[in-house]
Amino acid sequence: MLLIFKTFFFLGCISFGGPAAHIGYFRSAFVEKRQWLSSEDYAQLIALSQFLPGPGSSQIGFAIGYQRAGVLGGICAFLGFTLPSILLMVMAASLSSAFLNNDIFEGIIHGLKLLAVVVVADATFSMYRNFCQTKLTTTLCVMTACFILLLPSVASQLISLTIAAIVGARWIPDKQSPTTPSSLPSHSNTSYKEWVAGGLFLSFFFILPWFGDLNVTLKVFSEFFQTGSLVFGGGHVVLPLLQSNLELQSGLDSVNSLQGQISSEQFLTGYATAQAVPGPMFTLATYLGYFLLPNTPILGALIATLAIFLPGFLLVIVFLGHWKTLANKPVLSSAIGGINASVVGLLLAALYQPVFVTAVEQTIDIVSIILGLFILRRFKCPILLLVIGFMLLGALLTIT
To answer: Collapsing DSSP states into helix, strand and coil, what is residue 73?
Structure first.
């Protein structure tokens, strides 16, 4: 448990760049370095996270901890990866947004965004070599990337993965070897843990809203749980849905109202801060929860954080074992081959938008990315050294 926690805690301290970058960090840490799972199993976790609502990269991290040490392992992975971001968001909420105007700080964040480009590019290239070895899989990858770039939306992602699954099931031969070990849980019957997780999800989603008006704490938990249950497509999608849910509270009385305690300026400052700190962007809920329970701000931050992450984790417990069971069937195994290729296309599209677009501002940024890729791939430089190097680079570019 301690190993899982400290490994994810380290990643939570350096994982800038959003879900696409997190996927790259996780692959480097758990597939290449520690070999906790194979490339194929990791790609299946990515595919599963695309189909389920919730924070995709955090679901992948939870699933990795879950397959290593059960539910407690998943909890340790979640706490380790999310704790640095939670602490920073609470600090930002308590100290206001003044530190965001510091030029050196903004320079450091810029350098870490450039590192995110390097990490995502490396992950994309590595996964392309593993899962796009035929003309058909390469075509699925390229067409997915083009489709997502032209029509960026959650629906486009789901359509691409669905089409890739159908094409894979029909035309990609099943090459799965029965002797290949898998680290993912696999079973055909529903276990008690899955029944409990499914029951909790349904209860919190359908029943809890009826009791939310009785207590403001329940209202906070319910609203953020509803948001986490409906967000498909990653951290950026949480912004409009959270904003909509908070605005819907305007009709409540002053005791239970969730609107009015957070101004538009605070809301957008929290969103900007969530992009500036490492870890999942869903910790925007931490920042907002701090202001929603002004008498107990720390409690509000923790409740909002738990509520927005919990639905995705419950659904991972419900579906992970059956996902692997279905994938072992020849037709579905072939479909997974198509999905894997499409996932590479999703990552390729994310490499450009939002990772590259938000990071690159001038020619020196391109040079830094090229050199970073060269150092990472040629010399296998540890991520920590690259983090320090790009932080110094960002600060230096700001000064000069």
So the answer is: helix
Alpha carbon of residue 175 to chain centroid: 29
Would residue 233 be called left, alpha or beta, if left means φ above 0 and alpha means ψ between -120 and 50 degrees? left
Domain that holds residue 3: 1-400
* Confidence (pLDDT) at 208: 86
Of 87-101, 144-158, 227-241, 315-329, highest mean pLDDT: 144-158
How large is the C-alpha radius of gyration of the chain? 21
Residue 124 tokens read as 């994309």
Domain count, the chain: 1
What's the rounded Cα separation, in Å, for the pair 21 and 120? Answer: 5
Q: Write down how long the chain is.
A: 400
Query: Kindly report the CA angle at 250 between 208 and 253, in degrees rounded to 5?
Result: 75
**Residue 55: exposure state from Cβ atoms within 10 A (0-12, 13-18, ≥19):** buried
The amino acid at residue 238 is: V
Q: In whole angstroms, give the CA distance from residue 243 to residue 255.
A: 20
pLDDT of residue 227: 84
Q: How many Cβ atoms are within 10 Å of 328's Cβ, its own excluded?
A: 14
- Who wins on pLDDT, 325 or 28? 28
Read off the pTM.
0.71
Which tokens is 61 given?
A: 């991290």
Inter-residue contact 320 to 120 (CB < 8 Å): no
Query: Residue 173 phi/psi, 5° resolution?
Result: -65, 145
What does the block give as tokens for 137? 């899989």
> d(Cα 38, Cα 36) in Å, to the nearest integer?
7
Burial (CB < 10 A; 0-12, 13-18, 19+), residue 64, is: buried
Number of C-alpha atoms within 13 angstroms, CB side, residue 346? 32
Express each pLDDT in 78-98 by its tens digit.
999 999 999 999 998 887 655
Question: Residue 324's pLDDT is what?
Answer: 67
Q: How far apart are CA 40 and CA 30, in angstroms?
A: 12
- For 136, counting Cβ atoms within 10 Å of its Cβ (0-12 exposed, 13-18 middle, 19+ buried), the class is middle
